[in-house]
Amino acid sequence: MKILVIEDNIELLKDIKNFLEEQGNICEIATDYKSAFMKAVIFPYDILVVDITLPDGTGLDIIKEVKKENIDVGIIIISAKNAIGDKVNGLEIGADDYLTKPFYMAELNARIKALYRRKAYKGSKEIIFNEIKIRPDNHEVFINDRLMNLTKKEFDILHFFVANRNRLLTKEAIAEHLWGDHIEMADSFNFIYTHLANLRKKITKFGGRDYIKSIYSVGYKFSD
Amino acid sequence: MNLVTKTNKYYLIFFIFLFPLMVAADYFLIQYVVNKEVDDILKHESERISFNLKENETFPSSNYIFSTTPVTEDFPVSNKYRDTLIYEAYADKLMPYRMYEFTALIDAQKMKISLKHVLLDMNELIVWLFVTTTLVILLLVTGLFFINQGIYRWAWKPFFENLSKLTNYDITKKNPVNLETSNISEFKELNRIVTALMNQVKKDFQNLKEFNENISHEIQTPLAIIRNKMVLLLESQDLKEKELHWVQAVYQEANKLSKIGKSLTLISRIENQEFTRLDSVDISVIVDNIIGNMEEMIAFKNLEITVKLNPVKVKCDQILANILFTNLIKNAVQHNLEGGYIEILLNEEKFEIVNTGKISEIETEQLFKRFQRGNKETESLGLGLAINQKICEMYGFLLDYSLQSGKHKLSLYFNN
């Protein structure tokens, strides 16, 4: 898919661009309001990733303009402001999702994919990875076409892994994905470990391969 | 002691000291004046007698004569005043008299003539002086008391109004204080200084607040970059064991920093009253969701959980309510013992959570301050309870912690 990332911090912009391109997307960038506005209106994108605070304007205005022009595009706000007000405003004027800085790349990636799926396929598309098939909207997972019973958290982890295949997912990123922002759980890494153990057991029982690899002690990677 | 009582007290002390002084001064003054007058009368009388003797060579009649005594030629007495007591038969008592003695020639015989004049009864004088002085002082005291009361009520009125306005002043609220004006120059000066002081404090507070906010959100983008680079480094896979630990440590600390920043931002946003929505929030639904979300953690720790929820609607911000109850329930899970239990109760009056757990080392009051942790070995930041406290302050909820036979009990009373 084609993504425009609007962000005034060059380093962060580079990170996002690299990450998204490695996922096989076409990623264009803009660092200020003017060029962002030009690109967003002229070229067709699937997803806009918009930072609220820009040197010469606000990302909210870009969203308003895009909506005024009736451009069909998924919009994700990224903001350091952590203001619930901003979030509500952003979602009210037509943004689809909101991420607070600092976010995990894997989280941004998962959100972009989910949004794209909702937009382009109206959510009906299945995610397929070798013998694993995921139907996100029904919370269903099939291994070799056999429906596998998973708990909600197990499903979330698997979905998150498949969306970020071949990438290192740190335990912190997984914990935040599962339990949200405001939870600081000392034990959460243990829970992740337990969930993964159960998930592995279930997948192998259904004849699937174990794709989850532990990377050092910092996290996990889902890959062939 | 307030101003008027204090002033009255000093007036009273002053009059108590003044009273004997006034009585004594009056006493001696009156005595002096009366004696002088009597002396003048006696002197005048003696001169009249002397004159008559010399010119008419007769001894005049006089009411003042006490005695005439012949004396020898060299008798030294001349022109002497003295006080004495003379028995008066008609009153049957001794009475004070002033005496004046002089010598004169009567029929060529030198005579000592004593004149007398009755004096005031001093005891009576003192009594009357006492009575009148007391009366005067009482009048003064009551007069001053009422004048004082009046001044206190009218002239100090703007002062007291300003005082109550300043008492209710809250620096976090935006509404300014309008001080009462007064035509008394001291109060004008006070108003001027207080206003200047308030403006300064407000400015400083504002600066500090903005600084805090800016810091806590300006660090977020650099932190995001640090984290991303660390993940890239970890993904590069050719790290030595030692380097891996370093990178991991940087990654974890950056995470911690980011969480601190987010929590502090949240606290300052609550303080800034940025959560103005008053949704009618069903607490039982929220609590139920949170418990559902933590189900696996609860199962993982083998916790026995009993939940008694009655539907309770509270007017507050949905997001804050979620944060508040998540924190409370999360704490009960996190600080619990393996195989312990949690008891949750919700009704119209309160939300109550009782759980087993390690005994906290810090005092209850400390517990709600920032960066305080019950036991130091856990990874938590200690900001959760401070956030809870802020949310509760905002909605007037009362948060109460107690330790009952080794069980932690947190009660949250809704404001009704």
UniProtKB/TrEMBL annotation, chain A:
Source species of the chain: Flavivirga amylovorans
Residues of the Response regulatory domain: 2-116
Residue numbers bearing the 4-aspartylphosphate modification: D51
Keyword field contains Signal: no
UniProt cross-references to PROSITE patterns, sorted A to Z: OMPR_PHOB, RESPONSE_REGULATORY
CDD domains linked to this entry: trans_reg_C
Keywords carried by this UniProt record: DNA-binding, Phosphoprotein, Transcription, Transcription regulation, Two-component regulatory system
Protein name: Response regulator transcription factor
Alphabetical list of PANTHER family matching this protein: REGULATOR OF RPOS (PTHR48111)
Automatic annotation (TrEMBL), chain B:
UniProt-listed SUPFAM superfamilies: ATPase domain of HSP90 chaperone/DNA topoisomerase II/histidine kinase (SSF55874), Homodimeric domain of signal transducing histidine kinase (SSF47384)
Superkingdom per UniProt: Bacteria
Domain Histidine kinase intervals: 214-416
CDD domains linked to this entry: HisKA
Residue spans crossing the bilayer: 12-34, 125-147
Key word Lyase present: no
Molecular function in Gene Ontology: kinase activity
Keyword hit for Cell membrane: no
E.C. number(s) listed in UniProt: 2.7.13.3
Protein keywords: Kinase, Membrane, Phosphoprotein, Transferase, Transmembrane, Transmembrane helix, Two-component regulatory system
Catalysed reactions listed for this entry: ATP + protein L-histidine = ADP + protein N-phospho-L-histidine
Pfam families in UniProt: HATPase_c, HisKA
Protein name (database record): histidine kinase
Biological source species: Flavivirga amylovorans
